[in-house]
Every structure is written in structure tokens, then in C-alpha cells.
Amino acid sequence: MNFFVQSKFNHTHEVVEQPERILIVDDEPRMRSSLHQLLEGPNRDIAECGSGEDAIAVLKNNDMDLVLLDIHLPGISGLDVMEWLVNFNATTRVIMVSADANIDSAIRALRGGAVEFIRKPYDLEEMQQKVDNALLRSRLERINALMTMRLELSERMHRFLVESSPDIIYTLDTDGCFMFINGRAESLLGYSRDELVGCHFTAIVSDEDIDIARYAFTERRRDTRATTNMEVRLKCNGSHRFESRQIVVVVSAMGVYEENGDGDDSLASRFLGTYGVARDITERKKAEETISFQAMHDHLTHLPNRRLFKDRLELSMSQAKRNGRLVGVMFLDLDRFKLVNDTHGHAEGDELLVNVAHRLRNCVRGGDTLARQGGDEFTVLLPDLYRPEDAGIIAEKVLDVLKAPFLVRGQEFRATASIGIAVYPSDGDSADVLLKNADIAMYKVKATGKNNYLFFTPEMNACYHERISLENELRQAISNSEFELYYQPKVSICGDRIVGLEALIRWRHPVHGLLNPASFIDLAEESGLICDITDWVLAEACSQMARWREIGLDNLRISVNVSPSEFTHSDFLERIVCNITKFGLPTDAVEIEITENLLLHDAPGIIDKMRYLRNHGVRISIDDFGTRYSSLNYLRKFPINTIKIDQSFVRDLAAGTTVSPILHAIIGMARGFGLHLVAEGVETMFQLETLNELGCDEMQGYLFSKPIPAAEVKLMLMNSLPGFSSQWHYGTRSSTSGMAVPVGLPD
């Protein structure tokens, strides 16, 4: 082994034997600990600190190979730490690990010298791979640096370093032709040394960048004004391996001059050519482009997002103002899409959205912009319109293309859409106003039957303001105590008595009179007022139940409907139990009614909260059972007491018709799982008798009573108790079994 090879081996061996030093900088101890456990291994020294100041203190006194650095730190930020590293010429590699979604921070980190930018939460394999790659590059750089120091006096050693460099190193003659280029050009570009030596530099420069590359590749200066980090695209060899590829490099170059014997560095020195280094930054550029794309596009459909859409809309409006054209904005919302998510799951819903986006993209013009606003909402920018009616033609095309069914995971789905259209300049002179008016028109379509399109009109704006006004009035209704509770009895047919009451909210509006929940509950959920309304209903229902119990009406239970959104609030369970305790009620006297689609949400969290209620004695009922996704697994896993047969199944019961197999299945499931069963919406004697024969004893509906105020409930309850009256109802009707059946209260 000659001296050169032996030296190379010794130096490399020394570097490899050194432990890999890693510094983890994060203000969250748990995050530091988890990263420490993930990355620890033989021949690795891992240090931790929780602030930028501590990180700089460690780096001042220790040579670190790699720093895993968070952007947001107490005191100075991660970006400041990186700037310190750059200013002190530290060779430490930096991987940014942050939950910061700001695109500018990511790009700034990469441009500031970070080798990678990883968003939290990160993939464990990806983190390990990127750390291993960074340490490998760091190890190679240490080897390179050490050998440069040891072998700088040897031409052979110098050539070895040049050939081992991860960068392209070259020299050009005075005409711009390659005199030397290292072997890295072959691995990066596919050209051999013999192919390039003697060729002009333009042979490898992308045609689009030749003008700017000329200043770098033929640089004559060698002072501080010499070319540094100029980005240039280089062409790869046309062979199969490198076909149609380009790489991006940063070029640093300086002039080479014949030195005078007296060391004079005057301009009289003869120019010999240019020496340069080109570093491959293709992966970094791809990372920057990916981050930029993600900032301006929807991650699911890859369509432009609302930010990019608004930018393009404002540009189109400026151009339309100059050329006198029109700009159309379509606001599109899929009809009943929430039902797809609730019934089949979010994975199927996402796939359906992707398929819808693909169809919509194919039916708009090349110059149009299709964007996803969020959820199941899309917008379409229609520039350069001659007439407003042209937007209607495209809307009809969209509705037509959605008619064919979508195949999602082996199932057919049909999607319709409601489309609102606003046109610049007649419907608004700003992007925000146009989008708002198109949205208003879309909601008008929703209210008038869906699966259609409408152009915005000023009259629609009045309806929009009415909705805003209604929301404000709803807020006032809470503070002004404008709500009332009505109660609908639940009747045991075998026991011939009232066994429970369902509390139903009404709004005594000062102008519109008594409003049922269908007219304001959805608005309450959208505006975040549902919690206050639920608290009022719980308190009023429990208070009323306590008053009835004081006069001896204690053999009853009361049920209260609860919005699925309530289960997302951490204090919801405490609020229920608190109201029951406050009014001294037995916990089993209160029943919470939930909709079936709640069971499709976060199963572990929902089960825990439902189990908490059950452990406190509160009964749980599934309302509208059978209309969603009634999995047997839900009945087995979820701690429920009662299922209510939805009135849509009861309504189908009529003389001369076959009883629905679904009804048989629901009653069989209740019996099999030992659950209480209630049928709602009973309106005829035939329905009563059929349900009773099938095994359902407890019912509610207009056959017995419509929802009535508390004062009327008291009279009904007292008349139904022994000792008060043998007739608790206002009238009876004999059934075929001879049982006395209440016929309900008059309107």
C-alpha cells in the first residue's frame, strides 16, 4: 500500500471512529425525549436543550455533526440559531423540525442552510432516513475537509479530493471551453470527462439559462465581487438513464491569473481562464417547490386553494377592467355530501371529492380556474366572458357531467351540486364581494330544491341579511329567555299509561311567533350557540321534572335531545350531571337522545363519554334509528339503553302493505341486545296494533298527543294517575284487542 492510499485509509478510519454528535433543540421535553429514543444508537452522542440561547452555548463549546432544530423557541428562534451558525462558519448540518405551517419560514430555513425541513408530526422512518443521510453527508464532508488539510501540498492528493468532491469542479480556458472537469460531472450529468474537455460550457447549460450562465462560467474577477451561488440549470446527457432531465446547481467561480514572480496582483497579470464549483441543489429546489405548491393548493385534490383562487380572481378583474370583458365566479357545493361521510366514512368521502374534482377539471375551459374552498365546496373562475349567460352554459355543463354515477371502492355514488354565480362588475367590484354573492346565490339554490344554478340578484342579498339578522336575534333570545319547552308523552301500551316525556324546544320569537327547532337549530350549531341552548334545555327540563315530582308525579323519565357537536366539548358531561344533581333528580329519570351518526365519529372518545354518563345512571337513547349506518357492532360496543324506531319506518305501516323487513330487523336487534324500544311518529290505530304485535310496547306520536306546554302536561299526567281520574286522556278509541287507547289532545 503506497503512502497516498495508506493516508486515505488512516484519515477515513479516524473520522469513522469518531462518535456522531447530535444536538436536539426543542422547547417540548416530551418531543426531545421521543427524538432521543428514536435516534440513539451505538457510536452516537446525543445532547438536548430547550432554547436557542442554550443551543448556541452548546455549539460554542462543542462540534456537533447535526442539529435537529425547532423554529419557534423561547427567546431567540431556531432561524436565529441557524444565522449564528452561518456567521460563525460552523459546519454543523441543520434539520428543521417544526409544526410551523408558514411557507416563508420553511423556505427561509432551506435558503439559510438547513439540509431538510420536516413538519410535525413526522413519519418515524422518514426522520431516521433523513438523519442518517445528513450524518452520512456530514461524515463525508469531514473526511473531505480532513484530507484537504493533510494533503494540500500533494498534487496527487489534491486531485483525489477534487475527484471525491460531491460538487462539480471545473476550469475553463479563455474561450470558455473546459480544460478540466472532475468525475462528479459523470454521476450528475452523465457526461464522461473526455466528452466535455474541449467543449464550450454552453454544451451542458440549459438553453433558457445560457445568458445568465455566461457571467458565471466566464468569470474573470477573483475578489469579493466574483460569482457566488448563482443558480443555473444544467442539461443531462441524452442517454436512457438521464433522458429529459435537468439539475439545478449553484455556481461559484473566479478568474485564474498567471502570478508574477514578485507577487504583484496587478491587472497586468495574464488571464488564464476560470475556476468554478457547481453544487447540486436539485433536491432543495424540489423541496421548496413542494412547499410552495402545498401553500397554494389543496392537499387532497391538488386543486388551487382559496388563496391562489383569490389571487387569480383579482388579476382577472384587473384585466377585465382594461379590456371591458366580464368575469364570472361560480360557487359550487355538493348536495347532501355530509350524508356520504356520516354513512360510509371519511375515506370514501375523500375519494368521492377527488373524483368530482377530476370531472369538474375536465369540463371547464383551459383558461378557467377550478379551486377547492374546503369541505365539499368548489369555486370556478371564468375570465374573459362576453355575456353573463356564458357562465350559465358552463354551469349546465357541470350539472350534466355530474349526472353519471361515481364508482368509489366498488360502490356507486351519485352527486348533485348547487351552484351560485356572480359576475364582475355588476355583482361586485372586489374579490370578496363576488365570492360572497356567489355563495349567497348557491344557498338560494339549496333552499329551492338543490341540483341547479342561479345567478345572484340583489333580492338574494336581502335574504342573506335576514339570516345574519336571525343569528343576532338568536343570540338575544338566549339572554332574553325567549325559549320554551314543549313535551310529547311516551306511552306504554300494555301499561296503558304515560311512562316518559320528550322535551322539545320552541322559540317564542317576538315577531314571527312560535318557531320549531328545524328553523333555528342548524343555525345555532353553525354559530356556536348550541352549547348555551343545550344548557338552557337541560336546566329547564330538570327543573320542570323536579316540580312534577313534588306533586307526586315521580314515576316518569324525561328525555332531552343533544347535538353531536356537544360531545366535542370537554365540559359537556359535567354540565349534564350538574343539572341532574342541582335539581335533586334520580339520574335514571333523565335520558339523553343522540342521533345515530354520532356513533360514526371518534369511536373511543364517544364510548368513554357515553360510559361516563351510564356510570352516573343517565340513560342513553339512539334517535332516528335505522336511517344511517346501523352496525350491529355499534349496538355491541356502545353503552346504550334505548333505540327509537324512526318515524319514516312507522309511516310506511298501512293496511294492505307488507311490513318492512328493516322494521323486523330493528325490533329483533333490540330484543337480541336487551335494549329498550320506542316507536316514534305513531299516528294511526293500525300502526299501533302492528307495532305492538311485533313486540314494541312503548310509543309516541300524534295518535296520543302532539307536543304540548308544561301546564297541559300536568293536567294530562294527573288525569292518568289512579285516584285522580280513570281517563288520563281526552278521549279513547277501542282497538281490536279491547284495550283503551288514548286518541290525543285536540290542536
From TrEMBL:
PROSITE patterns to which the protein is assigned, alphabetical: EAL, GGDEF, PAC, PAS, RESPONSE_REGULATORY
NCBIfam families for the chain: GGDEF, sensory_box
Highest taxon listed in the record's lineage: Bacteria
Domain PAC: 228-293
Domain annotation Response regulatory: ranges: 21-135
Keywords attached to this entry: Phosphoprotein
Sequence ranges assigned to domain EAL in this UniProt record: 467-721
Species: Oryzomonas sagensis
Protein name (Swiss-Prot/TrEMBL): EAL domain-containing protein
Residue ranges of every copy of the GGDEF domain listed in the record: 325-458
Location of the PAS domain: 154-198
The keyword Phosphoprotein appears for this protein: yes
Residue list for modification 4-aspartylphosphate: 70
